[in-house]
Design goal:
The chain has a domain of 87 residues. Helix content is 65%, strand content 7%. It has six helices and four strands; from the N terminus they run αααααβαβββ. The chain is elongated.
């Protein structure tokens, strides 16, 4: 149902924008209407050009501090979306963009996006606790749980696996 409403909204958006532009042009005149549109586009371009470097810097700071960079990346993505919406001609998209420029609203939208992604994600996490023995000496007594998982690195060519001395499969890579 949500997808249907979103689709209908995207189909109706150009018609609503056009009707608002015509009505605004009739009310305040052609040149002031074009001035508002151009001003919004310039503001959107400035936001987009500034956000690229800011997101990179904040992401590096988060990684250096040992925090996951999800917050800075999502915040920057929403700022870039706001800039793109400001560049798009129309007053409805400008209103949405201006709402995204308000930090508390942007954080709320970001939390909603993350919550929906987590709800729809298919995650499997297996946690193993050490029961003592030889493994405990390697990781230490207070190392915490061992989390087993599988991953695939996108963009890398797969190398044939080799079985190591401990019975685990390892990837050999040569350059």
């Amino acid at each position: 149902m949500t997808r249907l409403l979103l689709g209908l909204g995207l189909v109706a958006l150009p018609f609503v924008e056009l009707a608002l532009l015509v009505k605004t042009g009739q009310t305040i005149g052609l040149w002031p209407t074009l001035g508002l549109l151009m001003g919004a586009a310039v503001l959107g371009g400035a936001i987009m050009s500034r956000q690229g470097l800011t997101v990179a810097r904040r992401t590096q700071e988060a990684v250096a501090a040992g925090r996951p960079p999800v917050g800075p990346v999502l915040d920057g993505a929403l700022m870039l979306l706001a800039g793109a919406l400001l560049i798009t001609p129309g007053f409805v998209t400008d209103a949405i963009a201006l709402a995204l420029l308000i930090p508390p609203l942007r954080r709320k939208v970001g939390r909603t996006i993350v919550r929906r992604l987590v709800e729809r994600a298919q995650l499997q996490v297996k946690v193993h606790k050490s029961t003592g023995g030889a493994e405990e000496g390697v990781a230490g007594k207070d190392a915490g749980p061992i989390i087993e998982g599988e991953f695939v690195r996108l963009g890398e060519k797969s190398q044939p696996s080799e079985e190591g001395a401990d019975g685990n499969r390892t990837q050999s890579r040569s350059r």
